[in-house]
């Protein structure tokens, strides 16, 4: 398997743990283990007696039950726990796809969605969204690029990097097009539940279509990426069984303490998501005002979900050099759009409580 380097992770690998202020993170504000355990009487005792043996490969039954409560039509048996969403993408693609297959991937995207699809040997076509079109989903283009051997369509909503949520009409049409061809719809929903207006929340794809696979994660909305825990939910048990067979060659089973902590966190997911939504809603107007003051430099399609956005940036020279200069001189980390093949954009993150400080530093640096 020949994998192109993961440019987002390479860039973060260089800066994430040395930059003073993250201003591009896709994971919302985190909490400590102590704060998590304090959410529930008896939780600390549960952790203390948690055995450090292997766990069940599909995930602890009680965790799968807690995850299933997120969905309408999926039960615990329709959930497969994975070691973070990243493993879910890798294992699902490799379990379900091969060189005879065609795959459609919505772009720009979290890089592994594209690179790992290619690594299966399948032929991959990008369903590309453009800033000039307001990041609209071009359904006619999707229809054009679908083929009789299209086995899987990857979409991501709410979307990394634009922070936009798909409309219900688009999702319904995507489901219809997949259903006509019997294709899997792999819907990356790791930013679900942090829509800025909860009324915009879409149904999970796995609740809409039997061959949809919804990807979920503890990392983003709940702000708990250190748990390294995610899941796939689908009523296509045959597909989940194939992914499970693949998982036996990657992690076998997930981390026992992470499974327990995730289950506790999911019992309080409304509280964790609500707290992070409040941070997002407090930070967004500050960014709006900043972009207004710097309208010659930044312009964006205002995000309506997630803790990230992807403005266009002009007049700052090459964006990677701009971001490198910024982090070196101020300790503030933005993510250059070059890692998404979008060299006129930068990714901002506004899900952290200290965003106003990062913004103030950026603004005084810009002068
Ligand atoms: C769209 C998308 N999918 C999957 C992932 C991977 O998430 P995890 O930390 O759960 O592996 C990310 C992380 O940035 C993401 O943005």
Describe this protein's structure.
The chain has two domains: 7-32 and 270-366, Alpha-Beta Complex (Aspartate Aminotransferase, domain 1), CATH 3.90.1150.10; 53-268, Type I PLP-dependent aspartate aminotransferase-like (Major domain) (Aspartate Aminotransferase, domain 2, 3-Layer(aba) Sandwich), CATH 3.40.640.10. The mean pLDDT is 98. The chain has a seven-stranded mixed sheet, sandwiched between helices. Strands 10-14-13 form a three-stranded antiparallel sheet. The chain is globular. Strand 3, helix 6 (111-119) and strand 4 form a beta-alpha-beta unit. It starts with 6 loop residues before the first helix and ends with a helix. By secondary structure, it is of the alpha/beta class. It contains 14 helices and 14 strands. Helices cover 40% and strands 15% of the residues. The longest helix is centred in the last third of the chain and has 25 residues, at 269-293. It binds pyridoxal-5'-phosphate. Pyridoxal-5'-phosphate binds next to helix 5.
Outline of this structure?
With 367 residues, this protein is an alpha/beta fold. It contains 14 helices and 14 strands. The strands form 4 sheets. Strands 2-8-7-6-5-3-4 form a 7-stranded mixed β-sheet, sandwiched between helices.
Radius of gyration: 20 Å
The backbone outline, from C-alpha atoms, is globular
CATH architecture verdict of the largest domain: 3-Layer(aba) Sandwich
Structural class: alpha/beta
Query: Average pLDDT value?
Result: 98
Measured as a percent range, the helix fraction is: 40-55%
Element string (H = helix, E = strand) = HEHHHEHEHEHEHEHEEHHHEEEHEEEH
CATH topology descriptor of the largest domain:
Aspartate Aminotransferase, domain 2
Output the number of helix runs.
14
Strand composition percent: 5-15%
For the sheet with most strands, the description reads: 7 strands, mixed
Q: What molecules are bound to this protein?
A: pyridoxal-5'-phosphate
Text of the CATH class of the largest domain: Alpha Beta
Q: Give the strand line-up of the largest sheet.
A: 2-8-7-6-5-3-4
Low-confidence stretches: none
